[in-house]
Amino acid sequence: MIGDDQQVVSVSQMARQVGVHRSNASRLAATLHAMGFLTRTAEAGQYRLGPELIRLGRLAGRGLDLVQQTLGPLQRLVGETGETGHVGILDGVEAVTIAVVDGWHTVRMHSHVNKRSPAYCSSLGKSLLAALTDGQVAERLDGHEFVVKTANSITSLPALLRELAEIRARGYAVDNEEVEVGLRCLAAPICDADGVVVASLGLSGPAARLTPAVVTDLSAQVRQTAADASIAIGGPPPRDLPAPVPPPREQ
Question: In the CATH scheme, what is the homologous superfamily, with its name and number, of domain 58-232?
C-alpha cells in the first residue's frame, strides 16, 4: 500500500488501492495507527509507515538473511539425525521459526515457518533468552503472563531464570514436552560477527525417540552445527566444545 517511492498515503488512496469505501479505509487506517503500523502526518487524512511495521520489516529482512546463510548446516544436521531441524529468532517474548527442514523419519515433528511459541517453554526461545542478562529477561517478560501449555511448562520468572543459568552452563536448551506433550527439542545459539546471539538452531522429535539420553548424545552435534551456522554468518570460529552434559533437571 505504501511503497518506497510513496512514503505518505491518504485515506482516499488507501480506499482506491484496497477497493473499499473511504469510510472503511478510514476505520482501517485508524486501527493500524492504534497498533503502531501507521503514523498520522500533520495533514489530516494522511499516514506514513509506523514504527511497528518498520520493525517487522527489519525482522523479516534479518530472518531472510539468516535462512539463506544457515540452511546448509541445518540440512546437514537433519540428514545425519533424521529429526526435524529449525532456526528461530526472538521477537519480544516469542520464538519465531524462520527456517524448517523436515526430518526423514516416518514419524517426525511437523512445523512451519513463522510458527510462534512462548520463548520460555521452547528450546529455540530458551536458547535465545539465555543470551540475555537476568535483568533483561525480567524486563522483557514484565507484565506477560506465563501461559501453561503442558504440566512441564515453566510458570514463573524465578524458575525460568534458574533454567537459563543451567542452559548457559551446558551450552544448549531443552524443551522437555513443555510446548506439546510427546514432543522434545534441543537448541543451541547462533552468533554473529560481534559474538552476539542472533538466532538459535535445534532439533525436534517425538519424546519416545528423543529420550533424555539421546538428547544428551545429540547435544554436541547440535552445538557444533550452531557453531558452523555462526561461521556461515561471519561469526567467530567455535572454541573447543565440551563433552555432552545432561540437563540437571529431571527429564
Answer: GAF domain (3.30.450.40)
Instruction: In whole angstroms, give the CA distance from residue 116 to residue 56.
Output: 14
Q: pLDDT tens, 28-56?
A: 888 887 877 788 887 777 887 776 655 55
- What letter represents residue 42's amino acid? A
Question: Is 9:18 a contact under the CB 8 Å cutoff?
Answer: no
Residue 91's SS3 state is strand
The burial of 108, by beta-carbon neighbours within 10 Å (0-12 exposed, 13-18 middle, 19 or more buried), is given as middle
The one-letter amino acid at 178: E
Alpha-carbon gap, residue 50 to 38, rounded angstroms: 4
- By C-alpha distance, which of 93, 200, 89, 199 is closest to 139? 93
Q: In the chain, which segments carry CATH 3.30.450.40? A: 58-232
Asked whether 201 and 82 are in contact (CB, 8 A), the reply is no
Order of strands across the sheet with 183-191? 116-118, 94-101, 84-91, 197-206, 183-191, 173-176
Which tens digits make up the pLDDT trace of 69-120? 889 999 999 999 999 999 999 999 999 999 999 999 998 888 899 899 999 9
